[in-house]
């Protein structure tokens, strides 16, 4: 308590000084500085109120002799009054100072002065005498016409900005850059006031004809903050303009998304999808510049986390949402694929962007082989020894996880000899950094496993042990080795689809999941598979039911 | 229902008293009661907003009161003039009391406690009085900030925010008065003309006549047949202007040519009277041989330049107005003797000036003069 009051005294001196410098915030510098400190000052006011409400008026004056000056200065700074709840908290503070029963003329005067300040906060602005007489003559009080006046002013300013934007040099009433900048500063405290939304939107969308950015940094930051916290509702086009004009805002939005993903429950793609759609990033990413920045940040995240499956899953969900948004976008602005994926061959990008639902089932195998060829060519053309080349191709490929999963399903479903191309594709997906020899070995292991599974699918009875034997075909003991993960996923796939699979599923999984990491991997696989079936609208009732049950049980275990 | 109406009556009286010195007799209990009544009426507004019959009954009661106080021109407009005002009656009362210096210390202290209780559990269902007041303060600052930084008066009066807002208020009030009494608007406007600054009033009327027709307010659904749009208010204005030649003359004199052209285009009923006025003004001028220009005899006569500007503006209006004007000018010219030589008939000279002006402008700009951008 004592420490609190010491802090308060320190802050008090700091703010008293600041307010004196700001005065009525009529210059560029004072306005900018005020805008930077609006949130902190409001916090200070709250703390002051908490302290003041415990004391009576006389004690307050003893403790903070200059309090009235401080509050008065705050009242005369229109930026402070316009911000969030500051005007309300100021009123509370002022009310604490009113003397219920003034004993002497000094106290009466104080009451009078406080009364004046309250009046100032709540009273009407002085317009021309004529206007005042007019409104009074019609029997209207400020409460009646302030909302309407504000609305008209906002619309008028917004249309001026729009005219400026459309007509450029032609318009007689060209808006001077200083005026536009001034408007953007003024919007900073008002961002969360819904009446001002049209003006904010116009400022973002209409960028006039100046070569450099006119709008103030504080404005962009304030808008972005409000968008992240859902305190303002802007159309996507305005948010896109925001991000295009102010890169830090886009970066901050991505970081905000990452934070949300980290702090939320693991392995729930539906939730990830929710967060991503919420952030407006997929729609914004239809603009290639934004897509590139977002993709770059995903790439960094992937490298930082050493290829964490959660990041891969996020990238896949994002890409899905992005492709959906791109299809809806359609209309005028159609950017070439090259602008989104500049380092990829156009044929590869085109093929990958297609979803399996766009290709007839009979052609899936063909398409997969084609993808495999293109990727293999891209990977093996790179310089040997460095992982960078393959990484680029792999990074592109993992955006579209559906293809890898389809390859696995194709391998399991067909009784024919597994095509090398598909084996390569899967081995690459799970182990991008493997050398040629390592990859070949993985492909051999997988082929063997597939052979066993085929045999098992033909027999009438299955046992979990058989499955375990099939899995043991590999010689690797490292559970994270690419081959291990790939084989594990193949086995899980088998369990879901094979006619007798559901009977041995639980036993098999118990045998497989001997570490927490593996269990998480299995959960991730099931969640991802269910999500994909949901999106594509394909599911067999039995497999779906099994997958859901298994997922539920495993989730309770971790 | 009757008790509700009586409640309304008593509150209206209370509201009227709240800005007089009578409040010096109020004690904290009175303040509390007054605020409770206000809160009750606000609740009524929310509850019966969509209930056509009750709403009409309440509004009718308010209008009756208004009429009894001398109404529609003989006295000030009461605080509650329509149903919508009930939604803000607590804020109205609060602000009046806050502004009233006559309120005693104890009562004032109690008032502040009631209005600003401090942070508490927010009532999600409706906005509290505290929130309404804070919101008003915030909007006030917003207007202040926008005015100081970046707001400019729009040279086109009909697009100027302050003018538009005043115009909207006028139209709304005319609608109220029109609902209360059929002849109300005319008397009301006449009384406003007597006591309000005339220049501003005329501008507001012009802007009001140019407002686009309103769509029905979304939160106020009335029984079909009762609802009126801006159209009613505009009609009342036109009717009043046409019935008051003195006002109309001042209207046409005070306002810029372009604005008048727009108004006349929009309300064709005004064009014959406007043209008639212009004709009268023209006939008062005579030709000064020495100076070679048309001049008036008295100081208040409209000078040639002004007359010319108005006709020029009218000629740039779309048909049928443009045609009407030209026809009128041709007729006057014919009546005067159909001279082609300048200096004999003002109508000839005007037509000559208009045609040559149009020709010159065409030459300079490279296209035919079209609609004025004003």
TrEMBL record, chain A:
Superkingdom per UniProt: Eukaryota
GO cellular component: Fanconi anaemia nuclear complex
Gene responsible for this protein: FANCC
Quaternary state and interactors: Belongs to the multisubunit FA complex composed of FANCA, FANCB, FANCC, FANCE, FANCF, FANCG, FANCL/PHF9 and FANCM. This complex may also include HSP70.
Keywords of the record: Cytoplasm, DNA damage, DNA repair, Nucleus
Transmembrane segments: none
Organism (species): Sapajus apella
PANTHER family, A to Z: FANCONI ANEMIA GROUP C PROTEIN (PTHR16798:SF0), FANCONI ANEMIA GROUP C PROTEIN FANCC (PTHR16798)
Organism lineage: Eukaryota, Metazoa, Chordata, Craniata, Vertebrata
Descriptive protein name: Fanconi anemia group C protein homolog
Role noted for this protein: DNA repair protein that may operate in a postreplication repair or a cell cycle checkpoint function. May be implicated in interstrand DNA cross-link repair and in the maintenance of normal chromosome stability. Upon IFNG induction, may facilitate STAT1 activation by recruiting STAT1 to IFNGR1.
UniProt key word Cell cycle: no
InterPro entries documented for this protein: FANCC
Localization, UniProt: Nucleus
Principal place of residence: nucleus
TrEMBL record, chain B:
Cellular component annotations (GO), alphabetically ordered: Fanconi anaemia nuclear complex
Compartmental location: Nucleus
InterPro entries recorded: FANCF, FANCF_C_sf
Primary site of residence: nucleus
GO biological process terms on file: interstrand cross-link repair
Record keywords, A-Z: DNA damage, DNA repair, Nucleus
Domain of life, source organism: Eukaryota
Pfam families with a match to the protein in the record: FANCF (PF11107)
Keyword Zinc set for record: no
Protein role: DNA repair protein that may operate in a postreplication repair or a cell cycle checkpoint function. May be implicated in interstrand DNA cross-link repair and in the maintenance of normal chromosome stability.
Matching PANTHER family: FANCONI ANEMIA GROUP F PROTEIN, FANCONI ANEMIA GROUP F PROTEIN FANCF
Name the record gives this protein: Fanconi anemia group F protein
């Amino acid at each position: 308590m004592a420490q609190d009051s010491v802090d308060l005294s320190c802050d008090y001196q700091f703010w008293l000084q600041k307010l004196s410098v700001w005065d009525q915030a009529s210059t560029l510098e004072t306005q900018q500085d005020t805008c930077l400190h609006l949130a902190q000052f409001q916090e200070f006011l709250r703390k002051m109120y908490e302290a003041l409400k415990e004391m009576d008026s006389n004690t307050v004056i003893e403790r903070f002799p200059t309090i009235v000056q401080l509050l008065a200065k705050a009242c005369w700074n229109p930026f402070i009054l316009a911000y969030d709840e500051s005007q309300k908290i100021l009123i509370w503070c002022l009310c604490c100072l009113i003397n219920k029963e003034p004993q002497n003329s000094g106290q009466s005067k104080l009451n009078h002065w406080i009364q004046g300040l309250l009046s100032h906060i709540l009273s009407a602005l002085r317009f021309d005498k004529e206007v005042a007489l007019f409104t009074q003559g019609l029997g209207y009080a400020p409460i009646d016409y302030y909302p309407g006046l504000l609305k008209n002013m906002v619309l008028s300013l917004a249309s001026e900005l729009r005219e400026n934007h459309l007509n450029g040099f032609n318009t007689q009433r060209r808006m001077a850059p200083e005026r536009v900048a001034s408007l953007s500063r003024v919007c900073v405290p008002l961002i969360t006031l819904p009446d001002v939304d049209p003006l904010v939107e116009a400022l973002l969308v209409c960028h006039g004809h100046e070569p450099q950015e006119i709008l103030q940094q504080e404005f962009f930051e304030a808008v972005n903050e409000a968008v992240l916290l859902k305190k303002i509702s802007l159309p996507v086009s305005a948010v896109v303009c925001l991000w295009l004009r102010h890169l830090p805002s886009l970066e901050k939005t991505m970081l905000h998304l990452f934070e949300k993903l980290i702090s939320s429950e693991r392995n729930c793609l539906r939730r990830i999808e929710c967060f991503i759609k919420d952030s407006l990033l997929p729609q914004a990413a239809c603009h290639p510049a934004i897509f590139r920045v977002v993709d770059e940040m995903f790439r960094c995240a992937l490298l930082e986390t050493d290829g964490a499956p959660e990041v891969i899953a996020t990238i896949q969900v994002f890409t899905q949402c992005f492709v959906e948004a791109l299809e809806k976008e359609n209309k005028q602005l159609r950017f070439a694929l090259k602008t989104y994926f500049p380092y990829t061959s156009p044929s590869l990008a085109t093929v990958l962007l297609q979803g399996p639902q766009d290709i007839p089932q009979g052609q899936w195998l063909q398409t997969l082989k084609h993808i495999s060829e293109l990727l293999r060519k891209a990977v093996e053309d790179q310089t040997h020894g460095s992982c960078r080349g393959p990484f680029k191709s792999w990074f592109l490929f993992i955006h579209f996880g559906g293809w890898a999963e389809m390859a696995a399903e194709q391998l399991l479903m067909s009784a024919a000899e597994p095509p090398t191309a598909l084996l390569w594709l899967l081995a690459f997906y799970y182990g991008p950094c493997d050398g040629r020899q390592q990859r070949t070995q993985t492909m051999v292991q997988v082929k063997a496993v597939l052979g066993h599974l085929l045999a098992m699918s033909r027999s009438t009875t299955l046992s979990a042990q058989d499955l375990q034997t099939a899995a043991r075909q590999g010689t690797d003991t490292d559970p994270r080795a690419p081959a291990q993960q790939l084989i594990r996923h193949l086995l899980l796939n088998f369990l879901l689809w094979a006619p007798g699979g559901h009977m041995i599923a639980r036993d098999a999984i118990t045998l497989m999941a001997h570490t927490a990491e593996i269990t998480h991997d299995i959960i991730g696989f099931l969640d991802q598979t269910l999500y994909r079936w949901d999106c594509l609208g394909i599911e067999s009732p039995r497999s779906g039911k099994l997958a859901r049950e298994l997922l539920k049980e495993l989730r309770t275990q971790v | 229902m009757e008790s509700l109406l009586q409640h309304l009556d008593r509150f209206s009286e209370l509201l009227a008293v709240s800005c007089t010195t009578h409040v010096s007799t109020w004690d904290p209990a009175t303040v509390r009661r007054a605020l409770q009544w206000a809160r009750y009426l606000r609740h009524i507004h929310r509850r019966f907003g969509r209930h056509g019959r009750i709403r009409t009954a309440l509004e009718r009661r308010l209008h009756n009161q208004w009429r009894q106080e001398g109404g529609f021109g003989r006295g000030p407009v009461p605080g509650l003039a329509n149903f919508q005002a009930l939604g803000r009656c607590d804020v109205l009362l609060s602000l009046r009391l806050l502004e009233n210096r006559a309120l005693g210390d104890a009562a004032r202290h109690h008032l502040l406690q009631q209005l600003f209780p401090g942070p508490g559990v927010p009532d999600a269902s409706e906005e509290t009085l505290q929130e309404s007041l804070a919101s008003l303060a915030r909007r006030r600052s917003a207007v202040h900030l926008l005015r100081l930084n970046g707001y400019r008066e729009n040279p086109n009066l009909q697009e100027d925010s302050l003018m538009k807002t005043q115009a909207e208020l006028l139209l709304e009030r005319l609608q109220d008065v029109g609902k209360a009494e059929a002849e109300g608007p005319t008397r009301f406007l006449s009384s406003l003309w007597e006591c309000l600054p005339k220049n501003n009033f005329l501008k507001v009327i012009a802007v009001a006549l140019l407002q686009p027709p309103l769509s029905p307010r979304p939160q106020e659904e009335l029984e079909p047949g009762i609802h009126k749009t801006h159209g009613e208010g505009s009609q009342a204005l036109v009717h009043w202007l046409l019935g008051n030649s003195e006002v109309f003359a001042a209207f046409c004199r005070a306002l810029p040519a372009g604005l008048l052209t727009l108004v006349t285009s929009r309300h064709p009923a005004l064009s014959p009277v406007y043209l008639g006025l212009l004709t009268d003004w023209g006939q008062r001028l005579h030709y000064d041989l020495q100076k070679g220009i048309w001049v008036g005899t008295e100081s208040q006569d409209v000078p040639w330049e002004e007359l010319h500007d108005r006709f020029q503006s009218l000629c740039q209006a779309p048909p049928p107005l443009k045609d009407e004007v030209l026809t009128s000018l041709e007729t006057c010219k014919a009546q005067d003797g159909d001279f082609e030589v300048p200096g004999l008939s003002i109508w000839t000279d005007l037509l000559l000036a208009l045609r040559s002006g149009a020709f010159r402008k065409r030459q300079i700009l490279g296209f035919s003069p079209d609609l004025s951008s004003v």
